[in-house]
Amino acid sequence: MCGRFFVDEETAREIEKVIHNVDLQIQRMRTGDIFPSQPAGILTQCGKRREQPAAIASGSISPALELKEMQWGFPQYQKKGLLINARAETALERKTFRDSVLHRRCVIPAKHFYEWDSDKNKVTFFRKDAAVVYMAGFYNRFGDEERFIILTTQANASVSPVHHRMPLVLETGELKEWVYDDQFAQYALHKTPPVLGREQEYEQQSLFLT
């Protein structure tokens, strides 16, 4: 699962390379640790392009990404708390998620994310190449605000010693395909994420594992 992630100024600068209309949007990028229920910068379809899928498919309009601010977590009307993750393998089978996965996909950028091992030690996961960790997700509107969920999948060898689930991490070159291309999205829901580096904290000490 993923219950906390971190965004810094370097992440914001890297995002400038993949989004449209940089100056106005990047000012809304929240930095620091991001917890469920808090707002975060999310990459989605850009403006009117989301209303012109045929033009995108034909190539007459090029896909572009927009940075928006959304709250993390879908409300549960019958229960307390928020839905913050969804299993990628079964998201299309869930009535709560299906329409959003089909029509409102997004990308959640982070410097790194955290998990906790069985001894409650915090472990930080990051890209070994120092790139942004782009996590696949989807969103929906609830009242007057948009909210997102992070998709998770079976943990690969770099994460499984700590937790059996991990975010569905995308490569930089896959971002627009995930957001715009329905066929690619079907494939991506079952892809194996890239191997990540990790740093484990033991009280006041840390151990780098790569």
UniProtKB/TrEMBL annotation:
**UniProt KW keywords:** Covalent protein-DNA linkage, DNA damage, DNA-binding, Hydrolase, Lyase, Protease
Q: Which domain of life is it from?
A: Bacteria
Which EC number applies? 3.4.-.-
The species is Schaedlerella arabinosiphila
Instruction: Look at the named UniProt entry and state the broad enzyme category this protein falls under.
Output: hydrolase
Q: What name does UniProt use for this protein? A: Abasic site processing protein
Family, according to the entry, reads as follows: Belongs to the SOS response-associated peptidase family.
Keyword Hydrolase applies: yes
Q: Which terms does the UniProt entry file under GO BP?
A: protein-DNA covalent cross-linking repair; proteolysis
Q: Which GO terms describe its molecular function?
A: lyase activity; peptidase activity; single-stranded DNA binding
